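Support request, please re-run this one:
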Amino acid sequence: MNQIKIHEASEVSRTNMSEPVIDNPGTRTPLLELRGVNKTFGAVQVLHGVDLTVYPGEVVALVGDNGAGKTTLVKSITGIYTADSGEFFFNGAPSHIKSPKDASDLGIEVVYQDLALCDNLDVVGNMFLGREKLRNGLLDEVAMERLARETLAGLNVRTVKTVRQQVSGLSGGQRQTVAIAKAVLWNSKLVILDEPTAALGVAQTSQVLRLVRELADQGLGVVLISHNMNDVLEVADRVACLYLGRMAAIVDAKTSSREQIVELITSGRSAGIGLAHAEHVQI
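Re-run finished. Output below.
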C-alpha cells in the first residue's frame, strides 16, 4: 500500500498518480487495516481496491458523495457483506469477517443512524438488549444497572440523569449517547458511527462530538461517517475521501482545508492529490 504523509497539498505534485495519496500517522500497528477491498453487486462494482487504516486513539472520518460506497465499505467491515477480494487485518493479524458476529467478536461495533433503540425500554434495558445478564435464571438487574452507570461515567456522560429513564423520554442527543454507550459496553476496540449528529440541534451536536472525541481519547479507534464538514474538521484526525467506490485520498484533518476535502469527494482529485485521471473513473 502506497503511503505518503501529507502536510500541505503542495508537497505532492505527481500528475500521473495511480494510487491514492494516504496519510500515515506513524509506524504503529493499525487497529484496522484494509488492503485492496473489492465488492461487486451483479454487474456493478461498488468498491474498487479500497485501502483504509484506522489506528487506536484516533477518529477517521469517512466521507463521500451519495453512492460513493461508504455504506458498502462499512457493511463489509462489519460482516453484513462479504468482500469479493482484498485483505483485512485487525490488530495486525489477518482476519476473515464473514458475519456481524465475527466483527463483534473482534471488538468492532457500529451505531447506525436509526440507533436501533427500543422506546419502551429504559436505558439499562437498551444497553443490554440481547445480551442480558442472568443470575439464577433471572435478569440480574443490579449488575446491569451498575455496569450501565459505570460505562456512562467512564465516557464522562453527564446528560443522562438516570439509567432507569425510558428512552422514549430522551432527547436526540441523549439517545445517541445511549446508543454509543451500548456499543462500547462490550469491550469494543473499534466503533463505527453512521451520521451521529444528523437531525440534532447545535447543543446536542456539540454533546455528541465531545463523546466521539472521548472514545478516541480512551484509546478506541473511531470511524465517523458524516456529510457535515464542520463536524468532520472538529473531531477527526484523518479524513478518508471516497470517490465512486475508490479511495481518492486519506488526508490529515488539521492540515487540509474544507475546499480540498470537498474537491476530493466531488472529483477525486485536489491540487495533485488523489486519483489519476479521476474524470475518467467509472463505477
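DSSP finds eight helices and 15 strands in the chain. Residues 19-107+189-283 form a domain with the Rossmann fold fold (CATH 3.40.50.300).
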